[in-house]
Amino acid sequence: MIDENLLNSLNTDEKETFKKGLNDLINQTYVIENEYKQLNASYLSLQNFLEQIIEVQPNALWVIDENGKLFLQNSEAKKTKGLLELILNNKDSKEIKQNNLHFLVKIVKQAGKTIISATDITEEKRQERLISMGQIAAHLSHEIRNPIGSISLLASTLFKKVGVETKPIVLEIRKSIWRVERIIEATLLFTKGLNINKNLFSIDNFINQLEQSISFYTYSKDIEFIFELPKNKMQGDFELLSLVFQNVLFNAIDAIEESEKESGKVEFNYTEDEKNHIFTITDNGKDIEDKNLVFEPFKTTKTKGNGLGLALAWQIVKAHNGSIEIDENPKKFQIIIGK
């Protein structure tokens, strides 16, 4: 508020000068206010532009201010709960592992702010591991197959010559040999890659393959197997798909073996729709403890097996443009193969 005594003490010219100065000050205030609005709009536009740049990045990004508070992050960063805290607690680490995922971490400081990026390199690490495993598997398969072949031949000869009371022992030897050969084959397929050879075959041909594989598989409980497959035709790699169903079937047998039940049941059924062949394997064995580990290679919650069977099954089904779904109550695996 302007002092009235001051105004009264001014003459006419001084009042005009004072009035003009006051008007100039008011106008200057409007100019500064407009400039502030424009500057604020530019800042918001720039911030929005930066947010869009950060958002389109495929990796997780965080920006930390000089006070250590989170200033900005993209949607990829929001998906990785707890990862930022893990990075900040291990600032010297260039790689961070969280929930079976591997991240390449980069930290840059600029203008008082810290920019942190985390790139998911899980698939790259997996490929590196598979390449190494493939080299080892190729070497081991060559070294193992020769003696295994000899043992298999000798076991077949021995089976014909021994008495009835000894034949079960020789049969167990042959089963063990068959299991070793399967492990070698599965490891080579998984690590060296799949070569799909599609042909036309009758779906009920899978029954003979499965019955034969069951006769070589070792289990102690009384298990009822119900196979209901039609004579419909389908296109696919019969040998590889047989391997898929065998692996899922063996998983069902193992689940029954580990359950508290004295007996069990495994059913193998088929349905179809316009686009897919749908195979369902149901069992009443032990529930799946961790679905996240089901298709993870070399990781299993079972006491039996190496954790490779279902991982290989997933690869084969995926190569057939299909998928595997797991349901509970009742527990079942649905193998969906595109037509």
Q: Give me the CATH superfamily of the largest domain.
A: Histidine kinase-like ATPase, C-terminal domain
Count of β-strands: 12
**What is the annotated CATH architecture of the largest domain?**
2-Layer Sandwich
Tell me the fraction of residues in β-strands, as a range. 15-25%
Straight-line distance between termini: 86 Å
C-alpha Rg (nearest Å)? 35 Å
Q: Largest sheet, order of strands side by side?
A: 2-1-5-4-3
Structural class: alpha+beta
Tell me about the largest β-sheet: 5 strands, antiparallel
Residues in helix, %: 40-55%
Query: What order do the SSEs take from the amino end to the carboxyl end, as H and E?
Result: HHEEHHEEEHHEHEEHEEHEE
Provide the CATH top-level class of the largest domain.
Alpha Beta
What is the general shape? elongated
Number of domains: 4
Can you tell me the residue ranges where pLDDT is under 50 for at least 5 consecutive residues?
none
> Helical element count?
9
The CATH topology of the largest domain corresponds to Heat Shock Protein 90
Mean pLDDT: 83
Polypeptide structure, described:
By secondary structure, this protein is α+β, with helices and mostly antiparallel strands. Helix content is 50%, strand content 22%. The protein has nine helices and twelve strands. Strands 2-1-5-4-3 form a five-stranded antiparallel β-sheet. Strand 11 (323-327) and strand 12 (332-338) form a beta hairpin. The chain is elongated.
